[in-house]
Design a protein that fits this description.
The chain has 153 residues and is an alpha+beta fold. It has one domain: Histidine kinase-like ATPase, C-terminal domain (Heat Shock Protein 90), CATH 3.30.565. 31% of the residues lie in helices and 30% in strands. It has a six-stranded antiparallel sheet with strand order 1-2-3-4-6-5. The protein starts with a strand and ends in a 5-residue tail after the last strand.
């Protein structure tokens, strides 16, 4: 397993190197929460950031890194100005058309047994983030975003 612990960067961000597995994502989420708490982030902000980051990292593992045994995922993160900043880089498959998915609200009927299994992630990511951007360069996906507690405020 190539997982490294947090590595402080010269720009104030902390970098985590994450194996492209569900187990490694869980470990990285716990480490990210510890980083944010050590940088005095509000607990509600930490919880919101963890929710978004979990969705992002799980998407990377399930889609961009699907079928790869040696995928690399990097997370650069910090708390600045009351916001959690995250940059997720991975060497997996690019997003379709090199565009972020639209993230439409899933249609939910009256029957709870017929709820769709997927379709909620990108809507939630878009709703909970600020300055969400995606780029692909030199074989790497680069997704960057900030979380502001109570974004609508």
């Amino acid at each position: 397993m190539s997982h490294e612990g947090p590595v402080p960067q010269s720009d104030g961000l902390t970098r985590l190197s994450i194996d492209a597995t569900s187990d490694a994502v869980r470990t990285a989420l716990a480490e990210a929460c510890g980083i944010w708490a050590s940088q005095a982030a509000d607990p509600d902000l930490c919880a919101a950031a963890e929710q978004v980051l979990a969705e992002v990292l799980n998407n990377v593992v399930e889609h961009a890194q699907a079928g790869k045994s040696d995928g690399t995922v990097l997370l650069d993160t910090a708390v600045r100005g009351g916001k959690v900043h995250c940059a997720v880089l991975d060497d997996g498959v690019e997003l379709p058309d090199l565009q972020l998915p639209p993230g439409h609200r899933a249609v939910i009927g009256d029957d709870l047994h017929s709820l769709p299994e997927g379709g909620f992630g990108w809507f939630m990511i878009r709703a909970m983030t600020h300055s969400l951007s995606y780029d692909r360069a030199n074989g790497w996906n680069h997704l960057e975003f900030s979380i502001i507690h109570n974004k609508s405020a």
